[in-house]
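A note on notation is needed here, since sequence and fold are reported together in a single record. The reader may check this reading against the record printed directly beneath this paragraph.
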Amino acid sequence: MSATTGAPPVADTDTDEMVTVRDLDVSFGATRVLHGVSMSIAAGKTVGVVGESGSGKSTLAKVLVGTVRPENGQVTVDTIDVTRISHSQRGAFAYRRRVQMIPQDPFSSLSPRRTIGQTLAEALDPLHARVRRYSETIAFWLERVGLSADMMARYPHEFSGGQRQRVAIARSLIVEPSFVIADEITSALDVSVQAQILELLAEIKDSLGVTMMFISHNLAVVQNVSDEVVVMYRGEVVESGPVAEIYADPKHWYTRTLLDADPGAPGFTLDL
């Protein structure tokens, strides 16, 4: 069977690691976006990836979901060598079920012409997105994220920002993925709604045992939801390790700068 249409290439990797990134390089034209990035995520754990805009967080996420191909390095997700996977294999439904991304802006990612039920049915079965056929599963997941089953007949504009983010979480988890990437999912929400979404995400993750990458510029948020943290600066990983260790004793100056700028951190100051 050809590489284009066959099964995705399987990598020889540690079975305890759901995600492994080794010496990853990515450039867009003459601009180097990622340089020598290495990290790993153990199965069932959450790793927070932090850094300011332009640090390479979102590009790393796009490599993991297979929409950006790296120049060098190896990326393994759920035993699949993403760097060797073909374009057709990256787009195949089987791979997309394994790896899901919860977007930053759920409103733009939800079709305004489709009901929530139709959106979730399409996630389950892109070719035959029939709400009636999957109504029980859709109802279960809507209730799982704190919405009611009768909401499946509504359209995105009828929901608040927090409710739309709950729909986005349901859409990502309804296919029972192995790995989920949450990309700045609370940045557009007010503080009270942020707390509700983070609590929901943590509860669901723990109950399902899903492996997760949580991308954020907010260190306080990352601290609350992550087991480990990876700090990125200008396309490189400058520090990584268990959350408690990094927050208690950061080694790199950039990590210290981020922590000192965080209102929830001990070193934060505000000159008036």
About this structure: The CA atoms of residues 103 and 183 lie 6 Å apart.
